[in-house]
Design brief:
The protein is α/β, with parallel strands linked by helices. About 35% of the residues lie in helices and about 20% in strands. A 7-stranded mixed beta sheet has the order 3-2-1-4-5-7-6, sandwiched between helices. Helix 7 (about 150-160) crosses helix 8 (about 195-205). The longest helix is centred in the middle third of the chain and has 13 residues, at about 100-110.
Length: about 270
């Protein structure tokens, strides 16, 4: 484990995570022993906007059906299951938090997708995959916890096939002051690495990507937004204070303290 990663892992670790997920499903009247992708989508897309943001990002990035995707920072696996189950993709998921990977594996088996999703504990700055291995690298609200974005982007470039797609949702610094903490990804600014929007675009360019475009303005759900009304939300996986932290993110976006980004870039090639 690289120095500095421990606070990030601690931030996302919850005791009794599987039991909390089962209780949340039961509370909605679902059978926790037979969850579907649709049931789980109420709680397993841990970024701002939840499932709606994943759906929008897949559409805006024009992720091809049936392709090979790396879900970089996969959490408990909601986007991976959506891509595998609804788009016929083969997916690899990687996340720093061992507890998330363990629960993701259980949920994959319970939804019949264990054979289509491979999981690993690891960092987006040190990917354990061969060069030119994936058609798409999907990264959702992970980069705010990554100090070394240059390394993150170079690793994504390395594992993508020529012509492959790299798509990131990210929250950057806005012009109107510091964001309101605590936030979903950080209780304090010490583990929140935002940068201004141009920083991320320049880092992608420096890593070799082309066709770089921020498509957040076209998204139906913003990366900083809250869960869809009537859904469970990310509290079972990320903490009972998630509604307050999500509200801080939404307020920070509304006040121009944070800028929502949904970036699509390509590794040049055929």
């Amino acid at each position: 484990m690289k120095p500095g990663m421990e606070p990030v892992i601690d931030h996302y670790t919850r005791t009794g995570l599987m039991e909390r997920i089962r209780a949340a499903l039961r509370g909605r009247g679902y059978d926790p022993d037979n969850p579907s992708i649709e049931m789980l989508s109420e709680l397993d897309h841990l970024h701002g906007g939840g499932f709606a943001t994943t759906e929008a990002q897949v559409e805006l990035a024009e992720i091809p059906r049936g392709c090979h995707v790396l879900d970089a920072g996969c959490g408990i696996g909601g986007p991976s299951r959506y891509l595998a189950g609804m788009h016929g993709c083969t997916v690899d998921g990687i996340d720093l938090t061992p507890q998330y990977i363990d629960v993701a594996a259980q949920l994959n088996e319970m939804t019949g997708l264990g054979g289509k999703i491979a999981l690993a504990v690891g960092s987006v700055t040190d990917l354990p995959y061969e060069d030119e291995h994936f058609d798409v690298v999907l990264c959702q609200n992970v980069s705010m916890n990554v100090a070394d974005k240059d390394r993150m982007c170079k690793e994504a470039f390395r594992v993508l096939k020529p012509g492959g797609i790299y798509t990131l949702s990210h929250l950057a610094e806005g012009p109107n002051g510091s964001p309101i903490y605590p936030l979903p990804w950080a209780l304090t600014a010490e583990v929140s690495f935002l940068g201004v929007p141009q920083d991320l675009l320049e880092t992608l360019s420096g890593a070799g990507f082309s066709g770089i475009e921020d498509r957040a303005g076209r998204a139906r759900s913003k990366p900083g937004g809250g869960p869809q009304p009537g859904t469970i939300g990310a509290a079972p996986a990320m903490g009972d204070d998630m509604p307050a932290r999500t509200a801080n993110a939404a307020q920070s976006v509304a006040e121009g303290r944070l800028v929502s980004m949904m970036v699509v870039a390509r590794r040049p090639g055929c």
